[in-house]
Amino acid sequence: RSRVAACNSKTLIRKREGKAATEAAFHQIQGSLEADRPLEIVQIDHTKVDLMLVDDVTRASIGRPWLTLVMDIHTRMVLGFLLSLEAPSTTSVALALTQAVLPKDSWRAERLIENSWPTCGLPRCVHVDNGAEFHSRAFERGCEQHGIQIAYRPPATPRYGGHIERLMGTLMHRIQALPGTTFSNVVERGDYRSEERACLSFREFERILALEVLGPYHNEIHRGLGQPPIAKWTSSIETAASRYPLDAQAFLLDFLPYETRVIRRDGVRLFNIQYQDGGLAHLLGRPDTRLRVKYDPRNLSSVYVELPDGDHVRVPYADLRREPITLWEHRTAVRRLKDEGRRSVDETSIFTAIREQRAILEEARGQSREARRSVVRREVAHRHAGSAPEPFPAGATEEDADRIPMPPPGAHSGVEIW
């Protein structure tokens, strides 16, 4: 009789609330994801932050940012994070993973953060959900080149992401003490006016979040560990055989989105923009060889041509007078030009449209939240794109044995999701 009642309840919940609610109510826990050493398994996930931010200049709302987290399973340390005004993408994963792998002393110094953040090194395995950004060719290729295994959660089973989702829940709970919080749902928020109470800019909140992670979270006793994550890391990393990428700059490039192109006498053309550099001369005369041309969506002033041996050549605009732009600005400009009835869109018209867009956004900054968000979005992209990687700590053994130069690409398969 009790079994029948349970079956009826399960069926009822499935009909009323769906599979996810049924899983949460009735699934028997079969153990949890565990690792034997640091960097053996790391999890990556995203969440929209429960907080409204404001523009640096006008102090008016620009909406909620996204947070991408990278967490070490063995020690529960936060290895890296990315705060962004962009929705999760191939690029946000690449940037968060790059921060996780590389040393972070310069990043802390730029933000006046004294707390230590000693984590760095290549993970053996990344555990992720089935988002499109984790199935992108850039992410899969980068992991393959650096000997990183990808483990995907079964679809529609959030329990398999328990460690990092609990961490995100912990951080969001603490964020709800800040002015401008949206809380986790409309019931909790009640009549609290989040947008009116918001007072933290993107930079200010990024620093607060870092202080929260590197201070209380890393140094308080973790219930699942019985000790602080930083203590677990310190004691465990001494005996772990850590791996490091030989070239910090190339590591990010290995995860950036790309298109394939044949190198011609006038250089290479991407997004209707011409790029040229003398370093491409030796690649001429190979009409049947398509090479990967990688780009950073935050700054299209240069692209990176991957040579057959795996090295990269940085190739700037052919017209060096042009200003840096983001891919988002480029796409907005092209869409606007086509809406105006332009049958063909050339490089000059794109840059002219972007300059006009920027002038309009600056003028509208005080009146429109979307305009403010767009301006801050560009400022954040340019600031972060200019950050140079730093060397690994003294005494660290740099090895790149797992980095595998990928064979030249086949037929063009379209623009990568970024």
The radius of gyration is 23 Å
The average pLDDT is 85
Distance between the termini: 54 Å
Task: Classify the helix fraction into a percent range.
Answer: 25-40%
At the first level of CATH, the class of the largest domain is: Alpha Beta
Q: What is the strand content?
A: 15-25%
Biggest sheet record: 5 strands, mixed
Main sheet: strand order: 5-4-1-6-7
Query: What letter string, H or E per element, gives the SSE order?
Result: HHEEEEEHHEHEHHHHHHEEEEEEHHH
Poorly predicted parts: 20-31, 411-418
Number of domains: 2
Described by the principal axes of the CA atoms, the overall outline is globular
CATH-defined architecture of the largest domain: 2-Layer Sandwich
Oligomer: single chain
Q: What is the CATH topology classification name of the largest domain?
A: Nucleotidyltransferase, domain 5
Put the structure in a nutshell.
This protein has 14 helices and 13 strands. The protein has 418 residues and is an alpha+beta fold.
